[in-house]
Amino acid sequence: MEEQVIEKRGKNVDEAIKAALDELGCDIDDVVIEVIEEPTKGILGFMGKKPAVVRVSKREKPGEDVQKVLEELLDRMKLAYRIDKVDVEEDRVRINIAGKDVGLLIGRKGETLNALQFVVGLIHNRNREEKMRIVLDVEDYRKKKEQSLQSLALRLSDKVKNTKKNVVMRPMSSQERRIVHTALQSDPQVTTYSTGDEPNRKVVISLKR
Q: Which helix (H) or strand (E) is 147 found in, with range?
């Protein structure tokens, strides 16, 4: 994606910066400023006189650059969609997509959504020192699935406590297993661990010894 960068001249640096801000329609806190040339008065105040030159680039707001990558991909797919919500948490950006066509983005067991999420992360994080974890959701599909897994984990932990027997859950993706581990990590009576090989790796819930 192209970054918005412009160069402006002025009698002094402040004037050049103001001209750049007016053209970009930004406040000074929203840009990165580089002074290319300081103004010179020249001989006798006019011969060889040079203006100030600044290069100003628009600073992307957290999550805004990720959203642009996603929108470019979705536009190419010609889907009717809207970006419903963008949440930024330190090194993670979560974006929820809504619209009449977006169910197509989920795919079988969320495989299409996972693939789109991977591609967006790959494009966004390319050549960046600070990587962002991208989480894409479609009409809260992941959120609802996460809540369902959390409820299931709590029910199964109660079963383990009552029967004193381990419970082995169905094969799940690494992301799903992480949700179960996180849901039960603060329970003082049970522990969780993963067993088996991909793609049949499972979570086991057992009593703490």
A: helix 141-163
Q: How many CB atoms lie within 10 A of CB 18?
A: 15
Which tens digits make up the pLDDT trace of 107-125? 988 889 999 999 999 998 8
Strands (E), the chain: 5-10, 31-37, 52-58, 82-89, 92-98, 133-138, 167-168, 190-195, 202-207
Of 24, 123, 19, 109, whose CA–CA distance to 74 is shortest?
Answer: 123
List of domains in the chain: 5-58 (no CATH), 64-139 (3.30.300.20), 144-207 (3.30.1370.50)
Residue 77, amino acid: M
What pTM did the predictor assign? 0.61
152: Cβ contacts below 8 Å, ≥ 6 apart:
169, 180
Parallel, antiparallel, or unpaired for β 92-98 and 133-138?
Answer: parallel
> Are 28 and 11 contacting, i.e. CB atoms less than 8 angstroms apart?
no
Query: Distance between the two ends of the chain, CA-based, in angstroms?
Result: 54
